[in-house]
Amino acid sequence: MPKTPTLSLEQKLPPSGSQQITLAGERELRVSLQRGRQHLNYTFDILALAPKGRTRLAVPWRWFALSAVGVLLIFINRLWLFNFTGATAGWIIHGLAGATSLLALYLAMQCLVRQKVFITRVARVPVLRLVVNRPDRRRYRRFVTALRQRIESLAESVSLPVEQRMAGELKMLRRLSQQGVITGDDYERAKKRLLGV
Fold first, then answer.
1. Structure confidence by residue, pLDDT tens digits, 52-99
2. Together in a domain, 49 and 118
3. Whether the Cβ atoms of residue 160 and residue 48 lie closer than 8 Å to each other
4. How far apart are alpha carbons 69 and 123 in whole angstroms?
5. Which domain holds residue 74?
């Protein structure tokens, strides 16, 4: 059997993170994810993935909410507090609320990205998120195409009974839950779906 080439994709994640995804060997996908002080390294079997990822917009709601709170403070300050706090204190509150609102809006726009999300085949749990067109369109598309082809060729060439496939997916999801890649709630929902409970 010919050796399967290794293919890797490194991406910067907003606002200050990075991830490296490597297709290694025939069936292994390695992910190294770093966000701030959090650093995760995990691997999983490509056979557990559904071949088509779905594209979604990752919206940083907390930054948009903070921006909205800043705008709300400006209006409250203008309409009500300005009369009670005096001109100097009113302008200070006004400036701080405006600066907070603008900073939060800037961070929200920096963190707003399109993602390609790959889910597990049976339980439908998202386990891999790629930022669309990063680091550039050509490398991103080459990696996603190779990943899809590898998933599809494995699905055709490896014939496992459905029970064995589901058991392997459940074992992988339990390991990813223990590593902090997916939440415990995601694991419990997947377990109920896989076991039919």
1. 899 999 999 999 999 999 999 888 877 776 666 667 777 888 788 899
2. yes
3. no
4. 38
5. 61-110
